[in-house]
Fold this protein.
Amino acid sequence: FFFECPWCPRLSVQAFEAGRVMQKISLAPEAEQKLETLYARGLKQGQLGDALQQLGQFFPAVQVEILERLEEVDWATIHNKGGFLKGIMERYRTRPPLHLTTDDIKSESTILCPPANALLEMEMCKGTLTRSALSDGILQTLAAQDPETQVEILRRFGEADLSTVQRKANFLVGIIRRYSPLPHTTVDATLIMAPVAQEKLQKLIAEGKLEARELQATVLAAVAALPPDTQSKILDRFSEVDFSEIRNKSAFMKGIVKRYAKKSEKQRPAPKAPAGPLDGSMCTGNPPDQPTPSFWVKLEHLFVTGRLSRDEFDYELCGEFSDFPEAIAVEILQKYEEADLSMIKNRKGFLKGILRRYCKNGSADGNSPQFRALPFSVQVKIETLVSIGLLSPYDVNDACCQALAEFDEHTAVEILNRLQAADLGSVRSKAAYLMGIIQKRKQELPEDG
């Protein structure tokens, strides 16, 4: 017998004697050309097995696209290439017309560009990401980038060494942040706001009343600087308005925050650790279950000595401190305390100036020239160490990046591997420790010939 596949007329099946069915598959010419490219790269004939028979069932353009997905992965990590190709095809069979839309969010802001969507599908095929691990906030944040940036972010994720990363979705968030100099999404909000406020904010986004990009990071930090019950009231008040009549939703929320902040200040004398409106975990970006006594002790000391008033340390300053880990926040207060304030008229502005200098000099910004000058594998290694909590972004400063750039790519990664293998539990300055490893490696270079 003989029949033609309705999806691809070139697909034919012929029957032979004794009931034995032999399948003769003809791929589209452009797909055959792509397959020849894969063979030239080292793919062996027969490794794909009967997967090629299934491939012929797709439209010609889709056949090529599927083979491109196979070409983009590291074959050394794939034991069964035929099974992997089938996994890609299965996702192409089941993917919805609009990629990555969710049941809760009916907004185009969550639709990735086709190349980025294909890369994300590939990661799901590999098992590095799952749809359940990707929150709507992450997809929205990624979709908010321009198409080229979406693709670059997912390529960097795919090329990273994820063997030591437990929460791979969080690692993806870390890469996205480096492409967002001013964080403005729910990803940042969920890290510092109380759970009850997070839930209400996510609900507004899920209902399509609000887009994450419409709220500035400083406003979200200002909300987080208040007690959880006040955060909840602010979100309730915010959700009651008619959003169609509001042009600047971020400014509108800021107005609500100011009113509640004034009420909160009237009800309480001053924030004291660990209770009060300026919860230490919110001001230093640490999880709520990790208190930050050092920061609050230093801040209280400034209040008592009169070097800073409680009115000067308002929710805006608290929001700016939320961008730093506790150790850096304490160091900033120490710098402020050591300064000669006798000639300073605006002490709050002076403190904000110190904060800005730390933002400029820290390598938390992945767009800094020193960091971007490093080989890509070195950048990924640093991001990996940050994502697993071994380092904070401020531990690898511009000086460290410049020193690493003096080595070739392999040696720089080796230095970071040495840092990862070290016991850093008692190390106070990881940046200085890293510089020590770098200096020692420089001394070893002549012996290497």
